[in-house]
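User: Here's a chain of 100 residues. Predict its fold as tokens.
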Amino acid sequence: MEQVGELNAMLSSASQRLDAVLELTVDIDEVVARLVKRSSEQGRSDDTEDVIRRRLEVYFEQTAPLTEMYRSQGLLVQVDGLGVIEDVTGRVVAALNIEV
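Assistant: Prediction complete.
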């Protein structure tokens, strides 16, 4: 939350503001499976499923307040983050109404 305050101060001093905050949503089991596979391929024996799940829990615990704050401000835009890069990019572009 402190970083949000710092960001807002920086943007304000530059006469800028956020138009949107993008959150890529994913299926946790899919992410865990991908990370476990990557860990195996890269020989990272310390990245077990339990370690990865705990890391994700901490991430969500720390991110949840930000998500709720931006949602309450009407800035949060959620997009499905699973799929091939082109598909995810298309969903992001559409959700943010960006012309490319």
